[in-house]
TrEMBL record:
<feature type="binding site">
    <location>
        <position position="66"/>
    </location>
    <ligand>
        <name>substrate</name>
    </ligand>
</feature>
<dbReference type="InterPro" id="IPR014362">
    <property type="entry name" value="Glu_DH"/>
</dbReference>
<keyword id="KW-0547">Nucleotide-binding</keyword>
<dbReference type="InterPro" id="IPR033922">
    <property type="entry name" value="NAD_bind_Glu_DH"/>
</dbReference>
<comment type="similarity">
    <text>Belongs to the Glu/Leu/Phe/Val dehydrogenases family.</text>
</comment>
<protein>
    <recommendedName>
        <fullName>Glutamate dehydrogenase</fullName>
    </recommendedName>
</protein>
<keyword id="KW-0520">NAD</keyword>
<dbReference type="Pfam" id="PF02812">
    <property type="entry name" value="ELFV_dehydrog_N"/>
</dbReference>
<dbReference type="InterPro" id="IPR006095">
    <property type="entry name" value="Glu/Leu/Phe/Val/Trp_DH"/>
</dbReference>
<dbReference type="GO" id="GO:0004352">
    <property type="term" value="F:glutamate dehydrogenase (NAD+) activity"/>
</dbReference>
<feature type="binding site">
    <location>
        <position position="217"/>
    </location>
    <ligand>
        <name>NAD(+)</name>
    </ligand>
</feature>
<dbReference type="GO" id="GO:0006538">
    <property type="term" value="P:L-glutamate catabolic process"/>
</dbReference>
<dbReference type="InterPro" id="IPR036291">
    <property type="entry name" value="NAD(P)-bd_dom_sf"/>
</dbReference>
<dbReference type="InterPro" id="IPR046346">
    <property type="entry name" value="Aminoacid_DH-like_N_sf"/>
</dbReference>
<keyword id="KW-0560">Oxidoreductase</keyword>
<dbReference type="InterPro" id="IPR033524">
    <property type="entry name" value="Glu/Leu/Phe/Val_DH_AS"/>
</dbReference>
<feature type="domain" description="Glutamate/phenylalanine/leucine/valine/L-tryptophan dehydrogenase C-terminal">
    <location>
        <begin position="179"/>
        <end position="415"/>
    </location>
</feature>
């Protein structure tokens, strides 16, 4: 069993050793605060059900704790600790003045009615609100949470504190002080990094075949950007289904999106609906999607997808980690030996937290920035971080993840 927190600590030790920072990473070996609660929710049938919830405040040396809230049946305290640690590294990697935190509830949200989901989200805020706030800890969405949930949480926080404080949480809807561009920010940031990376290698998008694991907020938005820029998407998966283009011509993103939104899955072509059968594909088990042959594998689902058990079967030439922690340290080592470049999560998906920070700033200053302004500010942050990390990687002859950690540790420890 891969423990994400142990994996995170292995990554930390490795980077600290290379940079000669072993004696200084003590404060980063454990979270500053762990909050736990049992959220009581009255269900639609009148019965009270309890759900385990966490908020981990890992480190605030560089600014308020910052990180999303995840609703998932497999949430564990170690997972949330790992994610909050990675947030600490990520905010420092891109140089925004925030720390790292993360929250989670053990729940399969698909089993809740909208009313139950709202009650659960409000109960989360009631349990932890004394420790949250614009200058303390600023949550955001993550897997299975969205702008509607952020709006409920924001409203609950305002009621409890008897003040309107939109900067308490980010990822809100535009109607309730959210930011332009937050919905696509993670994909936008990843795309800026990828394009710059390919530019340095003088590779044209038209030649690149892509396989994408995960078709949620991050995966689907990235698929759209790649498709529009001429990349060939030859494989896609969600948690239940996966499809692969046997001819490697590339799928039409718009059709896949339409299928997913109508059917909740991406492989309905088997049902022979004339329109959808324009997509010629083979079926695959979702676990196998990462093993397909391609130029670029985009990981946009969950952690621990490439491990020592399947790394020998990875055929991609390059991997972009939009999910958090999808590759274990052992697998990372093998990929490095196989000369497969990994653009790591703490850089590749940092566009999300960067635009969250923009939302926080707009709320604090009562400003509204346009989508064009957001993208104009985001792009140089992502590219600057890539260049800084690339330089460290070349200097020490190490992988980009370890280089990103070194860059971040220097920022965190300096403070
Ligand atoms: P989401 O809930 O919108 O989508 C997750 C997707 O992954 C869904 O399509 C789901 O079906 C799929 N999935 C789950 N398990 C899978 C499996 N075993 N195989 C294939 N697909 C699987 O979540 P999201 O917001 O898109 O987040 C995806 C990842 O990106 C997470 O690791 C999250 O922490 C990370 N991330 C998200 C943001 C953000 O802004 N939303 C920012 C940074 C990082």
């Amino acid at each position: 069993m891969n423990n994400p927190y142990q994996n995170a600590m292995t990554q930390l030790e490795k980077a600290a050793k290379i940079a000669g920072l072993q004696n200084k990473i003590g404060p980063l070996k454990k979270p500053m605060r762990i909050l736990k609660a049992n959220l009581a929710v009255r269900m639609d049938d009148g019965k009270i059900k309890k759900f385990k919830a966490f908020r981990v405040q890992y480190n605030n040396f560089r600014g308020p704790f910052k990180g999303g809230i995840r609703y998932h049946a497999q949430v564990s305290l170690d997972e949330i600790k790992a994610l909050s640690f990675w947030m600490t590294i990520k905010t420092a990697t891109v140089g925004i003045p925030m720390g790292g935190g993360k929250g989670g509830v053990i729940i399969d949200p698909k089993k809740l009615s909208p009313m139950e989901l709202e009650k659960l989200s409000r109960a989360y805020v009631r349990a932890f609100y004394k420790y949250l706030g614009p200058n303390l800890d600023v949550p955001a969405p993550d897997v299975n949470t969205n702008s509607q949930i952020m709006d409920w949480m924001s409203d609950e926080f305002n009621k409890l504190t008897k003040k309107n404080q939109p900067a308490f949480i980010t990822g809100k809807s535009l109607e309730f002080d959210g930011s332009q561009g937050r919905d696509t920010a993670t994909a936008d940031g990843g795309f800026f990094v990828l394009k710059e990376f390919l530019k340095q290698l003088k590779i044209s998008p038209k030649k690149i075949t892509v396989v994408i694991q995960g078709f949620g907020n991050v995966g689907a938005n990235m698929a759209e950007k790649l498709y529009q820029s001429g990349f060939k998407i030859i494989g896609v998966s969600d948690s239940q289904t996966a499809i692969i283009d046997p001819k490697k011509k590339g799928f039409n993103y718009n059709l896949i999106k339409e299928i997913k939104s109508h059917h909740g899955r991406i492989d309905v072509c088997v049902r022979h609906e004339a329109k959808y059968c324009k997509i010629v594909h083979n079926h695959l088990s979702p676990q196998k999607i990462v093993e397909q042959s391609c130029d670029l594998l985009v990981l946009a689902a969950l952690e621990n997808q490439i491990t020592k058990d399947n790394v020998s079967r990875i055929k991609a030439k390059m991997i972009l980690e939009l999910a958090n922690g999808p590759i274990t340290p052992k697998a990372d080592q093998t990929l490095w030996q196989k000369n497969i470049t990994v653009i790591p999560d703490v850089l590749a998906n940092a566009g999300g937290v960067t635009v969250s920070y923009f939302e926080w700033r707009q709320n604090m200053k009562k400003e509204n920035w346009s989508r064009a302004q957001i993208l104009k500010k985001l792009k140089p942050i992502m590219i600057k971080a890539l260049k800084r990390i690339d330089k460290i990687a070349k200097k020490y002859k190490i992988d980009l993840r370890t280089a990103a950690f070194i860059s971040a540790l220097r920022q965190i420890i300096k403070k």
